[in-house]
Amino acid sequence: MTVPMETDTAADCFQLDAAEPAADGIRRVVVTQLDAAIADLAGHADDAAAVHGARKSCKRVRAALRLSRKALGGDCYRQVNAEVRDAARTLSQARDAVVLQAAFDQLLTSAGRTRSFAAVRRRLDNAASADAAASSGAVAEAVTRLQGVRDGVLQWPRKADGWKLLGSGLQRIYGKGRDALTAAVADPSDESLHDWRKSTKYLWHALELLRPAWPEVLKPLANQAHGLSDLLGDDHDLAVLATVLESDGGLPVTLQRLIDQRRAELQRDAVSLGKRLYAERPKDFARRLGGVHQIWRSEAAARAEA
User: Fold this and answer.
1) Which of 6, 150, 205, 289 fits a disulfide with 34 by CB distance 3.0 to 4.6 angstroms?
2) Average pLDDT of 186-199?
3) Domain contains 283
4) Is the separation of the CB atoms in 206 and 169 below 8 Å?
5) What is the pLDDT of residue 49?
6) How far apart, in Å, do the first and last CA atoms of the chain sit?
């Protein structure tokens, strides 16, 4: 699904540094992402690209929280994760109708039917206009929530560092994605596919954070997770499009057929990629990346002492 995109400078800063303790690195990237989200939203309540950028930053923050869950402790993790999650949810109305417009346009383009279903297009345009008009209050609420999280970052507990901080979080993220793949293959419901998408997004962002340890391998691996999350995201957008149209004015049979065909293609490609991405046991995956991470940190320390 294609939406208006901002210049994603926040993504460029979303990586750990071998010269800093892991706990400090997590705090740094979380602050950077929160600041980016707040800046995106300030004065841009009606800007789809700004809202999209803020939601991406919230996803990165939640991935960093999952990666450092052991160090934060359960109570702190749950509280902060809920605040960032709820901030992102308040932004959903400001963006969901734009997403459905984009999913509809992409579907018709892929089918070579860009001039079809004009009445459906008008319905989607009207919904987007109504949502944009009502979005300013939601944006203000999201900014307040994110600023509250930002103000409390320096008070976060610090119960572990190094790979002790990161390893268990990575194993958990990868394991949940692997389990979600199994569940989606067994029962490809909208809910199970959406759960798999969410888990895969967290893996993608966790790998972004870790990629400086071995860019030649971890960057392509992160890109594969990104690609999988995009396939599942496109599938989810089409599922929502069908549900919204069916409940509000009806869904033409021909359009339903196009949606079903495209979703079948997306799910086939997602399962093929997912089986490769999640081929390892979670413990083995985390151990392999842990070894790489420790080498990276050791080499950085040796350079600093030279």
Assistant:
1) 150
2) 97
3) yes
4) yes
5) 80
6) 49
CA dist 159 and 71 (Å) reads 4
pLDDT in tens, 68-85: 998 888 899 999 999 999
Same domain, 150 and 219: no
How far apart are the C-alpha atoms of 235 and 208, rounded to whole Å?
A: 23
Alpha carbon 142 to its chain centroid, in Å, reads 17
- Which structural domain range is residue 69 located in? 17-91+135-160
Burial class (CB in 10 A: 0-12, 13-18, 19+), 168: middle
Q: Mean per-residue pLDDT for 8-14?
A: 75
Contact call for residues 153 and 27 (beta carbons, < 8 A): yes
Q: Is the dihedral of CA 19, 17, 216, 180 positive or negative?
A: positive
Percent of the chain whose predicted confidence (pLDDT) is above 70: 92
pLDDT tens digits, 105-141: 999 999 999 888 999 988 888 877 766 656 667 888 8
The verdict on residue 102 lying in a domain is no
Give pLDDT tens digits for 133-182. 566 678 888 999 999 999 999 889 877 778 988 999 999 999 999 999 99
45 and 178: one domain? no
CATH of the domain at 63: 1.20.120
